[in-house]
Design brief:
Elements (H helix, E strand, L loop, with lengths): L14 H11 L4 H20 L2 H30 L8 H4 L7 H26 L4 H20 L2 H21 L1 H25 L10
Helix pairs in contact: 2-7
Length: about 210
């Protein structure tokens, strides 16, 4: 594998990025994970009460209030002490925050590969290349109609965020028990599908010629 690409040419995210996400979701660094989870949850909860424009404005005002106050405080302190420490944020102002072309190409290639894979899979499902898979997809869409009636998109984002930061650590702790019950459930589902395929004519893995 070279330049973030597999043998078949598909782009993959850099391993460092994956490792950081895993460490974050598995709470390897409790402080960092807590800050990210708390900030993300607070942002989503704020969006349930205010519009995204208001939330963005409040966050911007809060950050500006902190930086302006700190800038004035350091300026007064330097004037009293007659020191010449310079701008208090000089270290951050001198940092290069521009994205390199290589970084942009690397992540855009990854996004493009995922997008193409998704489009290909949706085409396969909607054009019924495999009847069983298309029926499963139809059942999923039918279930999502009820989910959409119970929750709005923002609520689903909140539930998804909580699940992302809780399910991995719960699974890691109770992996054996969860795998046992999931295996039992998968076996029952496969048995039901096999039974339906055997009884309904033309349902057994019919693929488009």
């Amino acid at each position: 594998m070279e330049n973030g690409k597999t043998e078949n040419g598909d782009s993959q995210p850099p391993p460092q990025w994956k490792d950081k996400v895993v460490e974050l979701l598995y709470w390897r660094d409790v402080k960092t994970s807590g800050v990210v989870f708390g900030a993300s949850l607070s942002l989503l909860l704020s969006l349930t009460l205010c519009s995204i424009v208001s939330v963005s404005s409040y966050i911007g005002l809060a950050l500006l209030s902190v930086t302006i106050c700190f800038r004035i405080y350091k300026g007064i302190l330097q004037a009293i002490q007659k020191s010449d420490e310079g701008h208090p944020f000089k270290l951050y102002l001198d940092q290069d925050v521009a994205l390199s072309e290589g970084t942009v190409h690397k992540y855009s290639d990854c996004v493009l590969a995922r997008f193409n894979t998704t489009v290909t899979e949706l085409r396969r499902l909607f054009l019924v290349e495999d009847l069983v898979d298309s029926l499963k997809f139809a059942v999923l869409m039918w279930i999502l109609t009820y989910v959409g009636a119970l929750f709005n998109g923002l609520t689903l984002f909140i539930l998804g965020l909580v699940g992302m930061f809780s399910c991995p650590i719960v699974y890691e702790k109770y992996k054996v028990q969860i795998d046992h019950y999931v295996g039992m459930a998968n076996k029952q589902v496969k048995d039901i599908i096999a039974m339906v395929q055997a009884k309904v004519p033309g349902l057994k893995r019919v693929k488009a010629e």
